[in-house]
Amino acid sequence: MELKDKIILIAGVITTIIYILVSNSIKTTEYMWLLTRIFGILSFAALFATVVLGEIRLLSKVKADFALFTLHVPIAKMSIFLVLLHFISALFDEFKWGKYLTFTQYLGFSFSDRWLTLLSLGTIAFYLMLIVGLSSAKKSIQKIGYKRWKIVHYLSYLSFFIAYIHSVNLGTDLRHSQFSAILNPVFIVCFLFVLSLLIARIMSSFRLFEDQYEMTLSAVFCLVLVFGLIYNIVLHRDLEAKVREFETRKSMIEASIDELSRTNEILKNDTIELAQEQGDINGES
């Protein structure tokens, strides 16, 4: 391990210890829950940037000229650190739902219900990130070989997709907050972009392209295709929901009309009876 990496590791450990102490002092306050949400969003953004920077070289004619790739490793390390802070925040949270969970339920092996399963997926995504990160050290690559390391690196895609499922189903700011209208589309675009890169990479591994230009076009095509597919699915679901709502309202209106008809018939009969009684009274007079 180089001196720079040792310094970064020591700084990370010290920061984590300090954060644990701070979290313990504010664990019953709303700030703890807020930090859990903030680090959740930041860690997803960092994971997205890590995956994209690692794979977008596929779209570069000269991969060595892709200068932004130098940020891939630092952002990858940052993403793991942010997920760790997100995990610690959720673990110490005694303000919201965290107070109902035990430590073992955070370890990623609780699947007794839907909510715990989604929670465990977040932890599993973290484990996959650690596997990819640890296997990417120079000594690790030398031990397992470049080809095996490349296969292991595909786990970064899996960790991203699992993290996406975890986020969109449990994320407060994606479901209930005032920011959901902004964050939801952003997360969907991130998902589609990474999915398109994965499809383009799989296609390139089968040597379906003769040059980089075709690969770039295929990635754009995959992005549009996947986006269109998901858009149609969402649109179809919205239409079904509107149809169900229309049918419900129609049934309510029909029920109201039937009720009014019965009421009208009763009033009509009462009016006839009153008229007959009035006629009988006049005849006696």
Mean pLDDT: 81
* Strand-residue proportion: under 5%
Q: How many separate domains?
A: 2
Shape: elongated
What gap, in angstroms, lies between the N and C termini?
Answer: 118 Å
- The residue fraction in helices comes out at over 70%
Q: Unreliable runs, pLDDT <50, ≥5 residues?
A: none
Specify Rg, calculated over alpha carbons.
30 Å
Structural class: mainly alpha
Task: Please count the helical segments.
Answer: 10
Q: What is the helix/strand order?
A: HHHHHHHHHH
Task: Explain what you see.
This protein is mostly helical. The protein has two domains: 3-177, no CATH class; 181-285. 79% of the residues lie in helices and 0% in strands. It has ten helices and no strands. The protein has helices spanning 3-25, 30-55, 72-92, 114-135, 138-144, 146-153, 155-170, 172-175, 180-205, 212-284. The longest helix is centred in the last third of the chain and has 73 residues, at 212-284.
